[in-house]
Amino acid sequence: MTVKGGLLLYGPKGEGVIQEIQTLTWLPEGGVRLLDQTRLPREEVYVECRDAEAVAEAIRNLRIRGAPALGVAAAMGLALGAQRLQATDVASFLRDLKEVAAMLARTRPTARNLFWGLERILTVAEKHRDLSLPALKRCLVEEAITMHQEDLACNRAMGAHGQQLIKDGDTILTHCNTGALATVGYGTALGVIRAAWERGKQIQVLVDETRPVLQGARLTAWELTRLGIPSRLITDSMAGDFMRRGEVQAVIVGADRIAMNGDVANKIGTYTLAILCRYHQVPFYVAAPFSTVDLALATGDQIPIEERAPQEITTIAGIPIAPEGFPASNPAFDVTPAALVSALITDRGVLYPPLARAIETLRGSSPPGDSSEP
Does 99 share its domain with 189? Predict the structure, then answer.
């Protein structure tokens, strides 16, 4: 086992080399180190955030992204912010902590895990308010680090459950980025694909480029190259043709928020893929930790959808591709109705329709090693 360029290298079963991506880590001296995903695939640059505001900037500007990663980043950002608070009594500390949480919450509205991470840290702060302020601050850091560790275990569990849905010889189409870069490590939808590959299944992956920010072309292709999994890049508009030709056996995507009825908010273009899958009778799977389920939302109609800058549509890498000043709409996510989801792959198992009943049944359970409720 060696470390090179910030990546942990090892050879599973003595075959090849897997490069484990260190998406984000807590620095012992107090800070958050993260891989700047806006610089990929051309450069591997790590950013060190020394305060909560720097973490918020990283989230807002997509230096770190992906619902599970945002959950841990937000928790670490809040724990980091707690260390800088000057309050001298617990009541004032908790009030100021909530203000830091509100600042982090304003960064991106759709990903449920971001809010889940903040809520978990705030809950721990309230639970341990009888501690001294130094001890309470240490407790919040420990909780954020625990969440980091849990995320990796959660993703591996998801991969183990989901890989059973993949057959030897399958070609899987995936959208956006759902690998280690979108999590603490291993991945959600890409983690399922990776788990199938590591179990010896001879599979191939079709990678949607994922306009407008090209997370598929820039990030997923980068990860798959390091994993050594056979893959090809296609434009988003090619997916239907590949399905028509029988070259797609399954589609696996991630999720940024899931309503209680099973409606799924994910990267824009996901809804289109789900409709294509239904027409071509291709299974459409969603992989996400159970913490992505928003227990407060009955349906996907209630999910807030982030509208990003039109420049993401009208330019590529800063180069204009549309007439100057031409208007553009840029919703970052769409909502796929539960009726189009073949199965929901979670860290607690695979859920099949009717998803509303399956989610409600699973609501009272907890994944191994985690007694907290999302």
Answer: no
Active-site pick, 151, 170, 208, 256: 256
| Phi, psi (degrees; rounded to nearest 5) at 233 | -95, 135
* Structural domain boundaries, residue 115: 2-155
Q: Is the peptide bond before 337 cis (omega within 30 degrees of 0)?
A: no
Alpha-carbon gap, residue 136 to 127, rounded angstroms: 10
How many CB atoms are located within 10 Å of the residue 307 CB?
12
Q: Does the predicted TM-score (pTM) go above 0.85?
A: yes
Tens of pLDDT along 213-241?
999 999 999 999 999 999 999 999 999 99
Least confident of 15-29, 47-61, 217-231, 299-313: 15-29
Distance CA 363, CA 188 (A): 19
Residues 196 and 88 in one domain: no
Can 256 be counted among the known catalytic residues? yes
- State whether 43 and 139 are in the same domain: yes
Do 40 and 138 sit in the same domain of this protein? yes
